Amino acid sequence: MAGQNNEEHPNTTELEAMAETVEAETDGRVTMEIFPNNQLGDYTLMYEEISQGTVDMGLISTPSHLDSRLEIQFLPYLFTTYEDVHEHFTLDSVLGEAMREIHSEQSIELLGFFAEGFGGIATNQPATDPADPTVGKDVVVRVPEIPITAQNTQDIGYNTVSMPYADVYQGLQTGAVDGWTGGHPLVNYLQFEDVINHYYQYNNNFEATHVLINQDTFEGLDEGDQQVLTDAGLQLTENSYTIAEDMEIEYRDKLAEEGIEVVEFSDEELEGLAEYSRETSWPTLDDPGQIELLEEVTDSMGVDY
Questions:
Q1: Under 8 Å CB-to-CB from 41, ≥6 apart: which residues?
Q2: Which residues of the chain have pLDDT under 50?
Q3: Which of 60, 162, 231, 255 has the fewest CB atoms within 10 Å of its CB?
Q4: Whole-angstrom Cα distance, residue 231 to residue 140?
Q5: For the whole prediction, is pTM greater than 0.85?
Q6: Is 62:7 a contact under the CB 8 Å cutoff?
Q7: Number of C-alpha atoms within 13 angstroms, CB side, residue 95?
C-alpha cells in the first residue's frame, strides 16, 4: 500500500490502524504492507500503478490528468464548513458516488477518504483587506496548475504565478512569490513556517486523500474479506474528519506561537467569500464533464449554480 506522508502524519498512523484491523478481522488472510512518504513514487505514478494492479492499494491524492472531473474536489468553496463536509463529502453522497464511478473507470475501487483539512493562503507580506474579495491584495501568490484555483485566487484579489509545488519553498525564500494557496495549517507549519509571516484561513479548498484499491485485487477477495476492507475504509473516513478539525486548531495555534499572524474569518465573511466565488469563478468552468458533475453535486447540496 502506497502512502505519501511520513510516518508521523495522521493519515499514515490511521492507515497503520486500518491495517491492524484488517489483519485481525480477516484472521490474517489479508495483510497490508504500507510504504509511506512516497517510497513507491509520487501520487500521479501511484494512481497509474494501482490502476494497472502493480501496486495493490494507496492512500494518496488523486491526479486529474486521466479524468478532468476529479478536479471538482478542488473547486473553491464547494464546502465552507466541516458540517458541509460531513454531510456532502461522504462515500454515499452524490459527490462520493461520482468519485466511485470515476475511479471505477480506471479499474480502481474507492474505499474511503481521509480528510486533510481546509486550506488557506500563506504569505510573507500582509494582504490588503483580506476579507473583501473585491479589493486587490498587493500580494503575488503561487497557484497550482489547476485553472479554477488560479482563477479564484485572482478573483478574490491576489496576483498569481503558476509554479510546481516542489519550488514553493524556494520561491518564498527568494521573493519570486509572496505566498501560496492551498495548504492547510499543518502543512504550513511543518514545511513553511520559517518563510511565511501570515496565514489566512480562507477555507477556499478542502483537501482529502483517497483510499484506493485495484479492482481485480478487491474482487479477488472473498465477500467477507471485502466487507472487512469496506468497513475499515469507512471507519478511517469517519475518524479523519475529527482528526482534521482538531489538527487545524492545533496547528493554527502552533503557527501563532511562532509569531505568524493567523487570520480567521467569521461565518458571515466565509459565506460572503463563498457566494462571491460561486458567482464569479465557477462560471469560468468550460469542461463539459466538470460542469455536468458540478450541477449534480450542487443540486444535491441545495447550492445555486
A1: 2, 49
A2: none
A3: 162
A4: 44
A5: yes
A6: no
A7: 24
